[in-house]
What we know:
It is a single chain. By secondary structure, this protein is mostly helical. It has 2 domains: about 1-45; about 45-104. The protein is about 95% helix and about 0% strand. It has 2 helices and no strands. The protein has helices at about 1-40, 45-104. The protein is elongated. Keywords: Cell projection, Cilium, Coiled coil, Flagellum. One of its GO terms (molecular function) is beta-tubulin binding. One of its GO terms (biological process) is intraciliary transport involved in cilium assembly. InterPro entries: IFT74 (IPR029602). It comes from Ixodes ricinus (Common tick).
Amino acid sequence: MYNQENSVYLSYEKRAETLAVEIKDFQGQLADYNMLVDKLNTNTDMEEVMNDYNMLKAQNDRETQSMDIIFTERQAKEKQIRSVEEEIEQEKQAADGIIKKYVS
């Protein structure tokens, strides 16, 4: 019974996390729409809105590219770490083998 309740709780928790991400995305979209409505209500020239859009898009593209580079570098570092950890484990096993050889 406890395992079943725990399983149900975990599935609800996972669903809540998914919905929280979805809500955050919708909040971002709503903020964008609200900004556009504010600009239109203040008689902002459409050319100015397009300039703002292009500037923000360029900034987002640069940041996306930067994040991609960081992500790739992180993956490479994690791969190096795994490799070093494997080497350490092999050395430990070799040392254990030597110790067992001399103890026997």
